[in-house]
Design goal:
227 residues; 8 helices; alpha/beta; five-stranded parallel β-sheet
Length: 227
């Protein structure tokens, strides 16, 4: 069976990618990065998602030294988590070069296990403030990983797949619901509590997606949501 590495954060988008890759017939090999983020909840939820899909192997890779670099509200506790994105600016939740690092490590893992694809849940639509979510970045990384690996140099092909890159959050939710993705196991809240705050930028975007899809989010929120 063909294999795919899934960059699995435990969030809505990466879990949707799990469902998409499964439908396409891939054997799933999720990899979750502990990158020095503010909380461990997303890692714990990623484990639950991996168990749900009954994967053969779920790799947890510790790159928590990224919090020594800082520069992001997600890795530096001295930077406040925003409740709304500043218009026209890169959000403070952007982690410098994170997706480039993730995809580099995922491509190494993919080469070791003989995978043909890497799935990552980036979107250039609803959260396009992140420079490492742009289509031109993904295109460049696709070229780079095939130039930099033995697999690419010996006639193989490793493809970075971004099935959500042109989808709104509503469209992502609709696709996930169609696939029966276990959204009840996912987390999106930047604050990392068991109950999502409902107020941070990530929560607001998630709520908006479910509302526009005409669905009720199965996770709990600390504030009342008018579905």
């Amino acid at each position: 069976m063909k294999k795919a590495v899934i960059v699995l954060s435990g969030g809505l988008d990466s879990t949707t990618c799990m469902g998409i890759a499964k439908e396409k017939g891939y054997e799933l090999y999720p990899v979750t990065f502990q990158y020095g983020q503010r909380h461990d909840r997303e890692v714990e939820q990623a484990k639950k998602v991996a168990d749900y899909y009954n994967v053969n192997e779920h790799r947890l890779v510790d790159i928590s030294f990224l919090n020594q670099i800082g520069g992001s509200a997600l890795t530096d506790s001295s930077i406040d988590v925003p409740t709304e994105a500043a218009e026209g600016e890169i959000p403070s939740t952007y982690v410098p070069a994170r997706n480039m690092i993730f995809l580099s490590l995922a491509s190494a893992y993919a080469e070791v296990i003989g995978a043909e694809a890497i799935y990552i849940g980036v979107s250039a639509v609803d959260f396009s403030g992140y420079p490492d979510c742009r289509p031109e970045f993904i295109e460049s990384m696709n070229q780079t990983v095939n130039l930099a690996t033995k697999q690419g140099a010996t006639g193989g092909k490793l493809q970075i797949e971004t099935p959500l890159i042109h989808l709104t959050k509503r469209e992502t939710v609709e696709e996930g619901l169609r696939l029966g993705v276990p959204y009840q196991l996912t987390t999106s809240c930047y604050n990392g509590e068991e109950t999502a705050c409902g107020e941070c930028d990530s929560c607001q975007l998630r709520i908006k997606g479910f509302k526009e899809a005409g669905a009720i989010d199965p996770i709990d929120y600390a504030v009342e949501i008018d579905w």
